[in-house]
Amino acid sequence: MKPILETDQEFFCDIQAPCFQMLSPEEAELVRASKTQVLFRKGDHLTKQGAFASYALFVINGLAKQYIEGDSTKNFNLRIIKPGEFVGLSAIFTKNTFNYSSVALTDCQVFLVEKEAITSVVKQNGQFGFNMIKRYCEQNTNLFDNLRTVLYKQMNGRIADTLLYVDSLKAENPEIFQLLSRKDMADFAGISTESAVKLLKSFEKDGLIELHEKDIVVVNHKELLEISKKG
Amino acid sequence: MKPILETDQEFFCDIQAPCFQMLSPEEAELVRASKTQVLFRKGDHLTKQGAFASYALFVINGLAKQYIEGDSTKNFNLRIIKPGEFVGLSAIFTKNTFNYSSVALTDCQVFLVEKEAITSVVKQNGQFGFNMIKRYCEQNTNLFDNLRTVLYKQMNGRIADTLLYVDSLKAENPEIFQLLSRKDMADFAGISTESAVKLLKSFEKDGLIELHEKDIVVVNHKELLEISKKG
DNA sequence: GATTAGATCAATAAAAAAGTTGTCGCAGTT
DNA sequence: AACTGCGACAACTTTTTTATTGATCTAATC
Asked: How far B45 CA lies from chain A's nearest CA (Å)?
């Protein structure tokens, strides 16, 4: 037992994340007091679409995917959630239910911060609020992109989008493709699993990508972009 | 679209569960107003140990298991959650985090009722409160039993307990054993998976049970009880 | 110091899930 | 009416999980 070190560790944990750096000691204390830390195992839901939400989640480490649940067979993947990002913010300021689900792709150390703590810090600390707005804004942009993709592009463009998106995360998370099944890729592109399989093969044949088991290497980035644009 | 039928259905749903029968129309309305309904798929977490809880869950249909999470490998199963039962009540009156996890063994239609609605109904309606107390009490009894088992019994007694418990649910849910892996059985008994496998085989050899794939038939109920008592 | 209860490990078998491929059909377009 | 884009189904293969078994290893008990 090393209680001193442990509390050090906890302190470190709060302060370390860039997004909490700007808080005053009292504000940090407010957040710390109303938070609880949870280990989500690979496959666990961080949020469940439709469930009540009295808190937001802040991912310390690990990766998760965020998606909307449709009927029993069909999900649509929205994004990969990375360390340092919030999940479930939408539940804080408006609805009090989560409007999407998210599940851990790897074990995730997460802390949960109660609604009240976040809203009151936002009210006190403009810089923090500004940051929060920025996050919402980014998410919005992504939602618009998603919408555009779904509305206007067809298979080739969609899977190209997906490849480019996931590949953009690969620098920081080299194992990212390994964590995604073909169904996941399909759910990002909003097409059937079988179509995803076929398209990936055909992209490989055309020399756009290389398939190594589950890992995918983007070879011709430019052409993929082209396909994405063409739709 | 048949909106009238749909609201009928919803109404039916509230009123149908015995535990809500005793509510006055206004009280029922209070509950109805603050509830949301969620479909949990097989494998989904209904509650996650350690997460904030601003609501309790009421299972309409489907089965789930409730367990405590230990270190990464070791869970301990507490009970099977059946339709008509609450999950997460403990979070309502005392702690505001769930002190156990639970996951759906089959798809589960569940509704979530916010804390405030439950507490205020309990304060108004003594009969409902009484019922709630009864539920807590039962759960307590079960926890004591679990504790006793873990503290004092050894493998044979533990797995006998598990078999008797699960078998007692079989009348209402004939498929129950199919839904549980050997690891689940082991986690109920608090022993290793391998030990569970070996014990089940040996019980089969002794004619106490029959193993048909995943299904288990209790042949000698009396003797199992005996083993459970002996410990 | 020997015995016992049980966990842990490693090897294998069996079952389930995920991935792959070809064929077909349907709804829009041309 | 022919064509295109894509999902749905079926059959099959591969990979991943789960189950099973035997062989140690360990700590507690006699």
From this structure: 7
